[in-house]
Specification:
4 strands, 2 domains, alpha+beta, Deoxyribonuclease I, Chain A, two-stranded antiparallel sheet, two-stranded antiparallel ribbon
């Protein structure tokens, strides 16, 4: 079971939103830099405070000091201007738990990558581990870096398809065919 591990890091689009606030108030709070007022409406933080049985309550999250990570018009810094006009929120999160002094997060930030309707987040951690085998470590690092290259290629391809679909009106299949030629 995941909770049996000494160190657990959960990250990604956890899809928690802001409750009981209008889009206008949220955007105004962002523009004025009043993130603490907005965080009072964050579903994840509310669930962790109110629900003693909530599984993610056992995890920690560093203080959020960055603007909401969702929902942007792709390729811009504008929050959703579609007919849905979604309320900006911190969907993208990093939560962690570690026993004793084995894990400490030193950085939590978002990145201004505009190929998605989300902004990516990252975290730096200090971990106390039992043993490092240099050869195995380098092999694992090489495999991780190669896998990350593949992930980045996939993100770029998806962004290019989304661009061709949304800007030029192609179907997804037509966009894929155009990219192959």
């Amino acid at each position: 079971m995941i909770m049996d591990h000494e160190i657990c890091i959960v990250n990604g689009d956890l899809n928690y939103r802001l409750d009981s606030i209008t889009r206008e108030l949220a955007v105004h709070g962002i523009e004025s830099g009043d993130l603490s007022q907005l965080l009072e409406h964050d579903q994840l933080l509310q669930a962790r405070r109110r629900d003693a049985g909530f599984v993610l309550r056992a995890f920690h999250e560093e203080a959020i000091t960055f603007k909401p990570t969702y929902k942007y018009d792709v390729g811009t810094d504008r929050y959703d201007t579609s007919e849905k006009k979604r309320i900006p929120a911190w969907c993208d999160r990093i939560l962690y738990r570690g026993s004793g002094d084995k894990l400490h997060q030193t950085e939590y930030k978002r990145h201004e990558v505009k190929v998605s309707d989300h902004r990516a987040v990252s975290g730096w951690f200090n971990m106390r581990i039992k043993t490092i085998q240099a050869g195995k470590r380098m092999e694992v690092r090489r495999r991780c870096e190669q896998a990350f290259v593949e992930v980045k290629r996939g993100i770029v391809k998806t962004a290019m398809i989304d661009f061709l679909v949304s800007v030029y009106g192609l179907t997804a299949d037509e966009a894929r065919k155009q990219l192959q030629t």
